Amino acid sequence: MVSQGKLPRAMADTDPDCIFCKIAAGELPGAVVDEDDHTIAFMDISPATRGHALVIPRRHSRNLLEIEPEDLTATMLAAQRLAARVTERLGADGVSLLNSCGRVAWQTVFHFHIHVIPRYDGDPLRLPWEPAPGDPDEIAAAAAALR
Ligand code: 5GP
Ligand code: ZN
Question: Among the four residues 5, 35, 93, 124, which has the most C-beta atoms within 10 Å?
Fold first, then answer.
């Protein structure tokens, strides 16, 4: 079997069924707010707050586990750039970055993306879990499995 990495660039870089590839290619509309050689950023169609945007690598990859390191670096740097801009231009009081990897983690579009979500004092967003002290033995067991 030919791995994706061995495919010619043009075949491996886009997925014909991917809406974000189509937005990056200009085949679907998108309110683009930032772009460079490796990334493009556009407004989320269902914003969590004012200015919510998505940053993606131009090259298709499904998720955090599959993205090439250089695309990940470029995408995170673009997210940082946009975080500064929403602060300066929209008056955001803070910024939440979100990446979901896998359906169970809420990923719904399978082209890697980082949500740049401007945060405002008093905005309605809430943590999706209730912070409470965990079982120390279980935390230690998980830590041991991760080392
Ligand atoms: P996920 O749930 O995968 O982390 O995020 C996917 C995001 O893409 C969602 O916030 C959703 O609103 C946004 N989205 C889905 N389809 C489109 C679209 O066609 N255009 C734009 N601009 N955003 C989209
Ligand atoms: Zn794609």
Answer: 35
